[in-house]
Amino acid sequence: MPKVTYIESSGTEHVVDAPVGQTVMEAAVKNAVPGIDADCGGACACATCHVYVDQAWAEKTGEASSMEMSMLDFANEVQDTSRLSCQIKITEELDGLVIRLPDSQH
Predict the structure, then answer these.
(1) Using CA atoms, how far apart are residues 6 and 100, in angstroms rounded to an integer?
(2) Cα–Cα distance measured from residue 101 to residue 29, given in angstroms and rounded to the nearest whole number
(3) Theoretical Cys-Cys bridge with 105: which of 20, 35, 63, 64, CB 3.0 to 4.6 Å?
(4) Is residue 104 pLDDT above 90, yes or no?
């Protein structure tokens, strides 16, 4: 099962097993990772699951859709590697994925 490392802005790490097919957001919520509220439940209708994909993984997670980009307009501290974690599906290729959480989401 792929592992995903979530790093809080404080540096605290949470390494979780994320089943293939689940989203990065679902894996965080199911494992009580702080900072990912997921108010809309993964419908790409809010920005409360905003994360930064580690630069080394940015290409492997794909590009944000136009709908996702629109929702990121509502997020704080958007960066080049900003994504909504509800839009990143876990695959075997993402084993070792590193996700950083914005300072505003703690």
Answers:
(1) 6
(2) 13
(3) 35
(4) no
Within-domain flag for 55 = yes
pLDDT one-digit tens code per residue, 28-40: 999 999 999 999 9
Whether this model's pTM surpasses 0.90: yes
Instruction: Name the one residue in this structure whose structure tokens are 């790409």.
Output: 44
On whether residue 106 sits in a domain, the answer given is: no
State the residue for tokens 């794909």: 62
**What integer is the mean pLDDT of 68-81?**
94
State the Cα–Cα distance between residues 67 and 75, nearest whole angstrom.
Answer: 13
Residue 21 belongs to domain spanning:
3-100
| pLDDT for 85 beyond 90 | yes
What are the φ and ψ backbone dihedral angles of 72, each rounded to 5 degrees? -65, -20
Structure confidence by residue, pLDDT tens digits, 54-64: 999 999 999 99
Number of helices and strands in the chain (H, E): 2, 5
In CATH, what number is assigned to the domain containing residue 46? Answer: 3.10.20.30
